[in-house]
Give the backbone structure.
Amino acid sequence: MMQDNKYQEEINNFIKNFSPYKEKNIVIYGIGRFTATIIDANIGFNIVGLMDKDPDNVGKIMFGLPIIDKEEAKQKADLIIINTSGTYWNLIYRRIADLNIPTFYQNGERAHLSELQAADNDYWDESLQNLEKQISQADVISFDFFDTLYTRSVCNPADVFSIIERKLCMEFGLIPYKKLRTEAKKNLDADYSFDELYNEISKISGLQENVISRAKIIELNTEKRLLVPRSEMINLIKKLIENTKKKIYIISDMYLPGSFFIDALKDKGIIIDEDHILISNELKKSKRDGSIWNFLKGKINCKNKKILHIGDNKITDIEMPARYGIKTYYVASPMELLNLSSMQNFAGKICTDYSSMIFGTVFSKFFNCPFSLNSYKGVLNINSDFDMG
């Protein structure tokens, strides 16, 4: 396995956070790359099973371990570790909180349900007007892409891969696409590209070149079809381009090619210089480790410029750029709005690919604007027959 510094850091953090529990029977929630990295490292923990949101996966074997349901977890687990991106920690814990098994997030924090009522959240004091005020005070504006300018009409980005697998199986017969993808990512650096990913899938799978080429086309077409522009944010960036001289950048930690972002923006009439679209896999620099923020500052001679970055991830879009002296503004993604809202308990019910697609479509409408719930303090209001339909 070609582990770069990021992967080794994940392993070291896992050991540091959970070494007191090495003798316990551990169930890991999450069957993606994070878990593949930990299990592949063979660091001596007693992991007895895995959990996943999709009930159809129960009974399958991943990374040499069984995927178990909640009843089996009750019998086997001394503790559960939610080993996924932090975006989904609260949502996942809502699904399994009733097990009453000690549960921890990936960072070692004990999982808990928020005691705040929806109306108590400070985010409801934010607004598009507040954002525009912050923009007016900056010389350079950078935007995150996914879940800031655009969202997807699924609740979980990983569900995109389920759609791709179904389409491939319809054309070529049974292909374990999601499993191959996870295995391939274990052998790649953190900032891998789209082509590097598929080259590795080809290498480990032995799939014919026509299947690999078709899979690449299906993925790009599926991503394009699922894209939903967040209208207020799109209008905001267009207004900035047309009416100001501020420099505008798009910054994304993503494996998709730069042409994907250029085409998506052009489709909505947004024309940005290609060298202002900073994608981690092309630069081999990322928001996650901070290297892209240093790159941005060097690119624009930041000594005399005030930079504002706008994004939805509280770590990569808010905490990390702030460490480099970049001012930030947080806008909530559709799924985060659900988690903050009066419907937050509903989030834990979205467990299958089908429900993710259905409710992703609903939420990408109701929570399209980052500030759609603010005037109601987090309460979802149905204001028309059309919305009810």
